[in-house]
Amino acid sequence: MALRRRALLLLLLLPMFRYRSLAVELFSTDLNPVVQEFYRAELSCIITSTKTVNPRIEWKKIAGKDTSYVYFDHKMQGDWVDRAELHGRTSLIIHNVTRADKGIYRCEVAAPEDTHIGAEININLTVHVKPVAPKCRVPQSVPVGKSATLHCQEKEGFPEPTYKWYRNGETLPLDSKASSKFQNSSFTVNTKTGTLVFSEVQKGDTGRYTCRATNAVGDAWCEEMEMEVYDLNIAGIVGGVMVVIAVLLLTTVGICCAYRKGLFVNNKQNGNSYKTPAKPDGVNYIRTNEEGDFRHKSSFVI
């Protein structure tokens, strides 16, 4: 009885095996390969089933709505001509991978002699990029009791790096209150944005600061920068303000005295500078004894 059941089950499954053997099938050992920049990447695409002796192999890169050929008509295309090759008939190897190579690659196989003549598989390539030296901004001097923010940023690395700050070569904790050694300070470190924020700087915060950016493939440092914390001289500031006020007062008094003495009066015009008006043709002016009294006589004879 058991033997009959097995035989019956085999007869039922036989059409399925036949159907499967007539379809081209693909398999990949790694659908999401991760490789470091400038290294070698292998995109696995393996034919596990086909009746076609020489199936057509194509590789494409999918970038949003844009599709470009990597391997077509039995040869590499475009940027991949000199740095890519097929391995084991269908797998793709890319040499000297760059960050521009990351993306989705599609392996397509056409097998005309199979019932289902086509198959495809998508492989997502991720390229890790080592960070470069981050850009740091550190204030040169800050008065005691004031706030201060130090910046550290790196835009090349992938995955995005995390940040650590150092003072005089010593790692700073994420929060000054988390360590008894930094209880007299008041800072916090944001590992994602790279900022080091002091709510109120103290004399002990003076020192040489540097930052390190780190991701899965490496790290990089910015150059050390000095930050000086100085005491705010209130007496000096008040004295300076008083000197300025005194100078302004003396200047004002001097101007007022000059006005009173008439130093700013315009003496260009007075009674002696009166200009005799021009004489019209044929008229002679005669000055009388009374100053300012003029009369004229005509020079025409009637």
Automatic annotation (TrEMBL):
Gene Ontology terms for molecular function: cell-cell adhesion mediator activity; integrin binding; protein heterodimerization activity; protein homodimerization activity
BP terms from Gene Ontology: cell migration
Signal peptide: 1-23
Transmembrane segments: 234-259
Family matches, as SMART domains: IG, IGc2
Entry keyword Transmembrane: yes
Domain Ig-like: 15-124, 134-228
PROSITE patterns listed in its UniProt record: IG_LIKE
GO cellular component, one term: plasma membrane
Keyword Membrane part of the UniProt annotation: yes
Topology of this chain in the membrane: Single-pass type I membrane protein
One Pfam match: Ig_3
Top-level taxon: Eukaryota
Classification via Gene3D superfamilies: Immunoglobulins
Keywords (A to Z) from UniProt: Cell junction, Cell membrane, Disulfide bond, Immunoglobulin domain, Membrane, Signal, Tight junction, Transmembrane, Transmembrane helix
SUPFAM superfamilies recorded: Immunoglobulin
Subcellular location(s) per record: Cell junction, Tight junction; Cell membrane
Stated family: Belongs to the immunoglobulin superfamily.
The protein's name in its UniProt record: Junctional adhesion molecule C
Organism, as annotated: Podarcis lilfordi
